[in-house]
Predict the structure of LacI family DNA-binding transcriptional regulator.
Amino acid sequence: MVTLAEVAQHAGVSASTVSYVLSGKRSISASTRERVEQSIRELGYHPNAGARALASSRSNIIALMIPLRTDMYVPVMMEIAIAVATTARTHGYDVLLLTGEEGPDAVRRVTGSGLADAMIVMDVELEDERLPLLRGTDRPSVLIGLPADTTGLTCVDLDWSATGALCVEHLATLGHRDIAVIGEAPAVYERHTGFAERTLDGLRSRARELGLKVLHRACEGGFDAMAAILARILDERPGTTGFVVQNESAVEPLLALLRQQGRAVPEDISVVAICPEQVAVQASVRLTSVAVPAQEMGRRAIEHLVTKLDGHARDEVVLLAPELTVRASSGPAPSAP
């Protein structure tokens, strides 16, 4: 392993000069800095993380709080996490994953130990117990999600309210008047998770404006759960011609059950999904969908956090506009018999 002293000898400078180049604590002439940086590249020197942290009072680590719950679609969470990690690395930061459901305790551990310079918080609830701690610490943070009160917080998220409204508008333009919403698992709504609540609020509000009937049912996902929910919906609202699905694990079971019942998609039933692009295009019927911009959310969160770490950012809410892509699963509402 190459040492700092070896870099200094190679560059023809003192070890303290190399240290100052790395830390930026003292002004070094451009020619000397260039010579040291050239030696670092040629020798493949990597500063010791512990020593660098002691020198700068920074760990160069960002904590990512990403509770991996069984009722959440993990691939989307991990896609965001990968975008966070890869973007952070381009700014010289590593990422520490905190995957437990610890809530405020995890925030206290990070802020109290100096484990990380900053935090990104996911799986945000409308009344999240972690928020008072985040507001009260001097460690920068960014939420990927939107709580009810964003005061003193920086948030990056898809505009879920607009997403719900967009799905309803699409079905309304096709003549559908009776719509069912297949939602996330019941526990997601019991926790008042922001994205699910906001989607439903936006969808219902726009449906009222357009004079549409909407029935929402939470669903655990999987074939058996979807079969029970579908039977219940069609029993309560036999005139349903459009479905909005915000539950990746329910998409394929719904399409299979509709086929079993002889209901053609989109001739008899139209389906619009809120899901990753990959889920939409690989479904047995290519789905009209609003994509979840996981990579963009992760990238934006890191960029805002790095700006905060540099002391240049103010708290703000960044909502990404939803985009609906029309595919084979949506079409005109069938004519009444």
User: Anything to note?
Assistant: The chain has three domains: 4-56, 61-158+294-320, 160-291. The longest helix spans residues 74-90. The CA atoms of residues 158 and 336 lie 36 Å apart. The mean pLDDT is 91.
